[in-house]
Write a structure and sequence with these properties.
42% helix; 8-stranded mixed β-sheet
Length: 267
């Protein structure tokens, strides 16, 4: 009888453990918009924020690399992927409010943030506006203002279309949906200031800033300015690297070690 009970317990654990590791798809009501996010793993929460016009699917490898040690919360920013557009003018402060709503929904008091491009800007805003809710941030190719864009980046903002973004084989409905998102995002990108120097200087969370020296959108001065402004920060400029920093080497060499560090002054 005892052997039978032990065998049943082992079988039950064999079923429950894989279920616990499975991705959970969730939504949170943010009033005018429903924000989609996915949860994987258990442990201290780490939020992943994609770049503009991206989605959570592009960061599956990062989530998989973290889920064994952390509770990973991968978010589709409002209007992106399965998140609805809403009807409020887009701002990075609004994106930050959405993330706080997700943390509240998950009953998490504090989290670390990994943000790419627009997600990196949102990470700065979260750390500045909600310091008590943020453990540490990693901003990959994030900037402070519209003037940080190179001329070719400004041109991309002015001319990008849904068809260019999705390709000629995309469905008309998907292209129309992307065009609607771009209509919401373009005024956001063209906002003069995303986060002020003064607000950024108030960020207390340990901050890792990563940028590529061949970024299509930003010069390295953008990343150096963030480093000079945020007191408790570290800067890594990667040689021969563009805007896409979602790469295995960067994840394992820089992101994971930074998350594992104990809180301390980085300078």
């Amino acid at each position: 009888m005892k052997t039978t009970k032990i065998t049943c317990l082992i079988l039950l654990l064999g079923i429950l453990l894989p279920l616990a590791a499975q991705k959970q798809a969730k939504y949170v009501d943010c009033g005018d918009a429903s924000i989609y996010y996915e949860v994987l793993g258990e442990g201290k929460p780490v939020v992943i924020l994609h770049g503009g016009l991206g989605n959570v699917n592009g960061y599956a490898s990062l989530a998989d690399s973290l889920k064994s040690a952390y509770k990973v919360i991968a978010v589709s920013l409002r209007g992106h992927n399965r998140s609805t557009l809403g009807n409020r003018p887009y701002s990075f402060d609004l994106f930050a409010q959405d993330i706080i709503a997700i943390l509240d929904n998950e009953k998490e008091n504090k989290a670390s943030i990994i943000g790419f491009s627009d997600g990196g800007v949102t990470a700065y805003c979260l750390a500045a506006l909600y310091p008590q809710r943020i453990d540490r941030i990693i901003s990959l190719a994030g900037c402070f203002r519209y003037s940080d864009y190179k001329p070719e980046g400004v041109n991309w903002i002015k001319t990008v279309t849904g068809k260019q973004r999705l390709g000629k084989d995309a469905s008309l409905s998907d292209i129309a949906r992307m065009d609607s998102l771009i209509t919401c995002m373009r005024p956001l990108w063209q906002t003069k200031i995303y986060i002020s120097q003064e607000k950024a200087a108030e960020i207390k969370a340990p901050t890792l800033i990563i940028g590529g020296d061949k970024d299509f959108f930003f010069s390295t001065e953008c990343f150096k300015n963030a480093y000079r402004t945020i007191p408790n920060s570290r800067l890594i400029i990667l040689p021969n690297t563009g805007h896409n920093l979602n790469q295995p080497e960067i994840i394992h060499k820089f992101i994971i070690p930074f998350l594992k560090e104990k809180s301390r002054l980085l300078n």
